[in-house]
Design brief:
14 helices, Poly(a)-polymerase, middle domain, five-stranded mixed sheet, alpha+beta, Beta Polymerase, domain 2, single chain
């Protein structure tokens, strides 16, 4: 079993220093997050009793995908409404310095290399490289950090000029990454190119931890046209396919929208992201951006408080997901925008995921746990 110590009743992952309560929990975490082989059968909690998977009754197995059962390290097995959720987030989810420093150093080394050598390969000047994803937004979860790198390039007349050059840019970007992977201190494995033109790859330095990275090129239309409003006006005159290519140039606005929120909101986003990664089974997990927007929308509906009861906030986000799932089920084929992108008035973020209803059902079941038993239907306060 991969642990460093067993102090204060916790086991500590040797890879990311996440603390877990049981050997089974540590084993499951190591398997899911670090790719190690399982040493124990998975253990779940159901109605307060611990069972191995093969001990769960047949009639219960059909409900597993609706979150009737939780892993032994799940926050949702807590029976006491006074449980300190903020402490849980700080100890279990916030990346600590020991994890964050080497991760940042690795990504910074890659960005520095791009800034120094990529322009020569692409034949375009680099304006800047922006770090987005959970790393840039300040919502990273310990042991589960993602980073998106957006390379803003100069030298284009307009967005259509950039689009015409994009296939060549993507090909040269892949060539650059392959050569970078041959360096003594770097390893890069290219996985695929998304429909949006993002090159997805795994990266590590000096035989350290592997990191999942997406990198894509963009033309800074906001700088070129002078404002987001002018970019949106130009987008309005384009076809739907062309509009989609503007997404990368709006990265900085989307990044700042999340990054500017209070620390407790970003901690709540961490908790919601952790929930979707560990409790959403049987369906694909949604991308983080839609979950971030719904969490922030729920927070605004609760009064946009700088300081609030995180446990209540989590409950209301789960209820928000439940109600949104029902809305999506009835409105998914309409022309209405259900989750509006804060920088792109034409984008409906909800259309990037096909399982909002099932996700909402899972969220609704989670909201019924004893951790939230003191929150009444008439109590809408986040205090």
């Amino acid at each position: 079993i991969d642990w460093i110590n067993h102090s204060f009743g916790y086991l500590t992952c040797q890879y990311c220093e996440k603390k877990l309560k049981t050997p089974n929990g540590l084993d499951d975490h190591s398997h899911r997050k670090h790719g190690t082989e399982r040493k124990f059968p998975p253990v779940f909690i159901r109605r307060g009793r611990r069972r191995s998977r093969n001990q769960i009754p047949c009639d219960a197995m059909s409900n597993l995908n609706l979150n009737d059962a939780y892993h032994s390290d799940s926050i949702l097995i807590e029976q006491n409404p006074s449980y300190n959720v903020d402490k849980y987030i700080k100890e279990e989810l916030q990346p600590n310095e020991a994890f964050h420093r080497p991760y940042n150093q690795d990504i910074d080394a890659l960005v520095t290399l791009m800034q120094a050598d990529l322009a020569q390969v692409l034949s375009y000047d680099i304006q800047e490289v922006v770090k987005s994803g959970s790393l840039g937004k300040g919502t990273a979860v310990k042991g589960n950090v993602d980073v998106d790198l957006v390379v803003f390039l100069n030298g284009f007349r307009n967005q259509k000029d950039f689009i015409s050059k994009s296939p060549e840019i993507v090909a040269n970007l892949k060539s650059f990454l392959r050569e970078a992977g041959k360096r003594r201190d770097m390893s890069i494995n290219i996985e695929k190119t998304s429909s949006s033109g993002a090159v997805q790859f795994k990266f590590r330095r000096n035989n350290g931890e592997w990191h999942d990275v997406d990198v894509m090129a963009a033309f800074d239309n906001i700088r070129h046209l002078g404002s987001v409003e002018r970019v949106n006006a130009e987008m309005a005159r384009q076809s739907e396919d062309v509009r989609k290519t503007y997404a990368a140039c709006l990265t900085k606005e989307q990044l700042e929208f999340v990054r500017s929120k209070p620390a407790k909101v970003k901690d709540l986003i961490r908790l919601v992201k952790h929930w979707k990664e560990t409790h959403v089974t049987g369906i694909p997990s949604p991308k983080s951006y839609g979950m971030e927007l719904l969490t922030i929308e729920a927070w605004k509906a609760g009064g946009s408080l700088q300081d609030f009861n995180t446990r209540k906030g989590f409950y209301y986000v789960l209820k928000k997901l439940e109600s949104f799932g029902k809305l999506w089920q009835t409105q998914k084929n309409s022309s209405s925008i259900l989750i509006k992108d804060i920088a792109d008035p034409f984008a409906d973020v909800s259309k990037r995921y096909d399982h909002w209803y099932e996700l909402g059902q899972k969220a609704g079941k989670c909201a019924k746990q004893n951790l939230f038993s003191d929150i009444g239907l008439s109590d809408r306060s986040w205090y």
